[in-house]
Design a protein that fits this description.
With about 100 residues, this protein is mainly α. It has two domains: about 25-70, no CATH class; about 75-100, no CATH class. The protein contains four helices and no strands. Helix 2 (about 25-40) crosses helix 3. The protein starts with a helix and ends in a 7-residue tail after the last helix.
Length: about 100
């Protein structure tokens, strides 16, 4: 409906954030630089927090689209996991098989 009415090239509302529409504000640029540094310098776990709608997921998706192909990254979106479940999710993202339950 919106696409045709406004002559858009693609649908304006998707279920998942699209990093192509990231507005690189000064704060977003700074966060992206910190995330990039953390990955490139192999600093271990990196956590990004912020208010709902601040652009955290979009920022992370933008980061993932820029990371070199030889770098493996785990991307955990669920903030309601306990410590054990977070480790399980990270292992799953890396394709690490575990037997712990």
């Amino acid at each position: 409906m919106y696409k045709e009415y406004f002559a858009l090239k693609e649908n304006p509302f998707n279920l998942t954030p699209d990093s192509h529409f990231l507005f690189p504000s000064k704060k977003h640029q700074e966060a992206l630089a910190h995330l990039t540094y953390g990955i490139e310098a192999r600093k271990g776990f990196i956590l990004i927090t912020g208010e709902v709608g601040a652009g955290k997921t979009t920022l992370c998706r933008a980061l993932l689209s820029r990371v070199e192909k030889n770098i493996e990254v785990a991307f955990v979106l669920n903030s309601y996991l306990n410590a054990f479940e977070i480790l399980q999710a990270i292992n799953e993202d890396f394709g690490i098989k575990t037997t712990a339950q």
